[in-house]
Amino acid sequence: xxxxREAAETIALKALTWIAGHENLLDVFMGATGAGRxxxxxxxxxxxxxxxxxxxxxxDDAWIMEFxxxxxxxxxxxxxARAALPGGVQTHWT
Length: 94
What we know:
Distance between the termini: 26 Å
Shape: globular
Largest sheet: none
Number of helices: 6
Number of strands: 0
Low-confidence stretches: none
Structural class: mainly alpha
Number of domains: 1
Helix content: over 70%
Radius of gyration: 13 Å
Strand content: under 5%
Mean pLDDT: 90
């Protein structure tokens, strides 16, 4: 379980780096979350922040595909990473 969490955090950190490299997308992320530039550094060590970052990234299929290609990470690995971070357990209503 710890390895899964570490792998998820690694993917989220790659996503943070990728988003930070896209100024317009970074501005959208910070506007949507209320995070400031200083929060990005402290947030990199906070599993809840990393989860919110992946939630943001998962809002747009194009972002996922671009990130996945740039980071050499399969798109489904992003979904799995989100599930492994706090609040990622999906509720099945059936």
